[in-house]
Design goal:
The chain is α+β, with helices and mostly antiparallel strands. A four-stranded mixed sheet has the order 4-5-7-6. A hairpin with a 5-residue loop joins strand 8 and strand 9. Helix 5 crosses helix 7 and helix 7 crosses helix 8. The longest helix is centred in the N-terminal third of the chain and has 23 residues. The protein starts with a helix and ends with a helix. About 5% of the residues have low confidence.
Amino acid sequence: MYTIDKHKSIKMANIKQNRFLIIANTKEQIFYINDLARIWGINNHRNLAVTLSRYVAAGLIYRIHRGLYSLKKASELDPVELGFKVIGDYSYLSGETVLAKHGVIFQRINYFTFIGRKTKRFQIGANKYYCRQLKESCLYNNTGVIKNEKSFNEASLERAVADTLYFNSHYHFDNLTVIDEVKLQRIQRSVYNN
């Protein structure tokens, strides 16, 4: 009887080790629960939930947000990547986050701003996020939206200004000298038909 239990324990340990090797070898750091089900070949949602609950309790995997898991703690992950993962749908970094990055506004922004299909506010650890809803005809117009160095969609400075003005035509900008007025007008005409 002892040898059967011993072999069962070894087999379970190997399964667990293989599961973590599989996800560790992917380029992804953040996984949706459905990704883990597919990667690990677990079709039963209840079994997957129990398995994840045990792994979280043992400190083998971290629950980052509802339905999101990682081998790293949230504080060790790229906060922008976290924002994109939680939003889920097509979105891009814009608004105050991009304006502050380019020195157009001087106030400290305590949240990451995105443009997407739905308005959403959420917080993960110390990071706060705000996604503004934009009608699809404008959202999917990629004029002025570029892939940044991490391959995330990010508004150019002029697209971020155009987006901000679309949501608040009286927005105050601290430094207008860095904005290319010609590019801004072209983006406004192309995206917002102004």
